[in-house]
Write a structure and sequence with these properties.
Distance between the termini: 25 Å
Protein name: Disulfide bond formation protein B
CATH topology: Bromodomain-like
Oligomer: single chain
Membrane topology: Multi-pass membrane protein
Keywords: Cell inner membrane, Cell membrane, Chaperone, Disulfide bond, Electron transport, Membrane, Oxidoreductase, Redox-active center, Transmembrane, Transmembrane helix, Transport
Structural class: mainly alpha
Number of helices: 7
Order of helices and strands: HHHHHHEEH
Organism: Methylomonas koyamae
Function: Required for disulfide bond formation in some periplasmic proteins. Acts by oxidizing the DsbA protein.
């Protein structure tokens, strides 16, 4: 079924599907932030950046329509980096309360008053607010769903890498 569905779309369209999936994930993040008023923590922001990077790679591949295997590897790498950030986030959420790191000052303060290297370290390692679970669906938190989405995106990129459809200008 997946193979026949995959074969239904042109190689270029398959990359655009990856881009649209990333755009949809970013739209869900915006909805949760601006409508449901759930403030993103540093790890959430890092995951959004990884989704954005993955989506831009898929978009560039669809527009460029050349070097598909290279774009597929880049998209898979970006998705797997995002998956590693999501996995850390899920791990932080499952720590016993006494092992959760301390909360940090707000990101705006950190960006204005800390060196860039410290800010990046904070955004990738997480803080106490990253351990808080504000929302669940079917028993899974947002970072758990994001981890699942990253793994699907990496799998999609892997399928695109293995695609042997000849290049045809569209």
């Amino acid at each position: 079924m997946i193979s026949s569905l995959f074969d239904y779309f042109s190689p270029r369209a398959r990359f655009f599907i990856g881009f649209m999936a990333c755009a949809g994930l970013l739209a869900v993040g915006a909805y949760l932030q601006f409508v449901e008023e759930l403030e993103p923590c540093p790890l959430c922001i890092s995951q959004r950046l990884a989704i954005l990077a993955t989506g831009l790679i898929f978009l560039a591949a669809g527009l460029h329509n050349r070097a598909r295997k290279i774009y597929a590897v880049l998209a898979a790498a970006a998705a797997l980096i995002g998956a590693s950030v999501s996995a850390r986030h899920v791990w932080l959420q499952h720590l016993p309360p006494e092992e959760v790191p301390e909360c940090s000052p707000g990101l705006e303060y950190v960006f204005q008053n800390f060196p860039l290297a410290d800010t990046i370290k904070l955004m990738l390692s997480g803080t106490g607010e990253c351990a808080k679970i504000d929302w669940t669906l079917l028993g899974l938190s947002i970072p758990a769903w994001t981890l699942f989405a990253f793994l699907l995106l990496a799998t999609w990129a892997g399928l695109l890498w293995g695609d042997s459809t000849p290049h045809i200008s569209e």
